[in-house]
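We both want to read discrete structure tokens more fluently, so let's practise on a single case. Once you have written the record down, we can walk along the chain together.
***
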Amino acid sequence: MTSPIPQLRPQSLLFAFFGSYVLEEGLGPVYSGSIIDVLARTGVGEHAVRSTLTRMVNRGLLRRQREGRRMHFGLTAQTEQVLWDGKRRLWQTGAVNDDWDGTWTLLGFSLPESWQRQRHDLRSRLTWSGFGALYSGLWIAPGDVDASSFVAELGLAAHVKIFHATADDATDIALMIRDTWDLGEVGARYADFDKRWSDRPGTASGDPLGIRLRVISEWLDIIRTDPRLPARHLPADWPARPAQETFHRIARETEAPARRTAAEFLTA
């Protein structure tokens, strides 16, 4: 039985649209009416689209440009960077870490007790960047992670120490991973995605553009919260691999027809 498609955030779908059909082509601002029509194919109403576009402009994620009576929306430099990163995660990095080199990035911090907000912000960025809490003030992530940039951005460089290291042979890495990350939660997202999409032909609904935007948005939301733990230290039945195969199948099936449909909207 196919599980229901989760409610996707309009911003995620907008990122999927701009990243797939505006970024690489170097297109200028897109007419708001075209954006509304495209997102209607994913089940998002006009009011939600307009509200999201306004919020994204206010946050510096989009730029607004009026042409006559029409309003157009284009990419800012910040959003272009986010979208290029998303494309690398989707099509190059992927969800399965088969090429881990055995190294870890360790980050230790000690903040004053009164710095509750700073501690929350740091932990949020660490989690987003694939770190897990090995101990209270010591976090760890697989591979070489550039943590210094967001630590500096948070103004915490004086309170943080970053190391790159390998584990001693006496360390049970698989056990450490199970103790540090919630594998059940991470794996459940992949299993749910695969259950929902594995038996669904990419063009079954006659609307490959809507399907493609939904599946890209959902998949990117999943892999961006995945620390990409080394595959050889994960359970043999780790669900990321079949889920990734399902994602690529849907992406292949929808690529050409979705691009033709998107071009019609963008040139209207």
